[in-house]
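Appendix B, record 7
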Amino acid sequence: MLKQLKNQILYCIIAGASIMPTTKMFAQNGAITPAMLEQFKKEVQAYPQATVLRNAISNNSIRQLSINNQNKYQIDDNFTYKVKTEGITDQKNSGRCWLFASLNVMRAKTIQTHKMKEFSFSQNYSFFYDQLEKANLFLEEIIRTANKPMDDRTVEWLFKNPIADGGTWAGFVNVANKYGLVPQSVMPDTKQTESTGAITQVIATVLKEDGLKLRGMFASKAKPESLQNTKKEMLSTVYRILSLSLGEPPTKFNWRFEAKDGKYSEVKEYTPLSFKEAFVGSDLSEYVMLMDDPSREYYKMYEIEYDRNNHEGINWIYLNVPATEITPAAVASLKDGEGMYFSCDVGKQLDRDNGVLDLNNYATNELFGITNTMNKKDRIITFESASSHGMVLSGVELGQDGKPMRWLIENSWGKSGHDGYLVMTHDWFNEYMFRVVVDKKYLNADQQRLLNQKPIKLPPWDPMY
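Structure tokens (predicted):
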């Protein structure tokens, strides 16, 4: 018995020794070896000012340490062309920048056209129907794909993204054309629209459970009309959640506005659709989206599947052209006093305190002794950069050669930054601007012709989604 135990112990020791990793095995497996760690440590010790830098970086904000003070106070308020508007909006803790940007473009035009003292559209009203329509789109697509397995990439994407508070210009167009618009005073924000994360999560959970139920009904050979009736009941629940959280959307209302001269307009009764007709117009199809995505072939039309909010609406469709060809259209629009929906990777090199977007705002590379050589295409395909925020392109300063030097952006973060605005250099525009929505009359003849192409449809998991 004792001899058998000794043999077992000896076997374990030999076996353990045989699987103990050696430096050679580390190297063969591509793993980090003790020798490598020792080398790294020596290289850090040999790095200039390593101790000083470690003390500074480990106890302070990287942004504060790397900020370029020479840039910090170089803010110029002079712009050759600037869109006139009144007041700054605040999306608070929500992902509705796309909706604020879209409505703020229309807001400036409405204030100018009707000579209003101030005015804002209701973001809450539009958001209500955006969320309801997204819920319907999800449930419809769950029914359509019910014959596919759960690990099908489309089905998987749907369940990962049943609803969201984000969007693009296309979502604004879909909701505005179908449901109209109302003034902010008629349906103001609530606590839930000011911080949309909680309510969006509630609806997302409900939809995921509903999606599984619909798939189960399909597997049990339920008839199409039964699926649709069940979907209708599910949407009624979503409507109730929205109504209790955001308020009941108005179907008609009386309204008047104060003009710049202090006089008030006549009180009139409106429906949301008649209000949109009176203050925005009946059709938004004259606007087109220009995109600079060097990871895709230029001079082509593209469409991203499921990047819409209602079942029958338009997806996000855009003409892909270099930034150098977006610039003239944007300048032409601003010369006419028309701001534009604009989206970019706002977090890159943003001095938020001063409201400046400049490639030289932060010297992070110098702080750590690193280099970043990726171009715009590289940043897109590695998911290092993508459009993260929608705002209004509202001004431009032109140099003596007629080319842009810097741009003015109306933001929706309240009075933060430069009194609610951001100032952007043209170099930053070229690197981190992604989308601009302009009236197609500002496109050149070649771009106008390109709009006639049938869009190439991209999947919803495309890097630029």
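Remarks on this record: The chain has one domain: 81-114+122-458. The radius of gyration is 28 Å.
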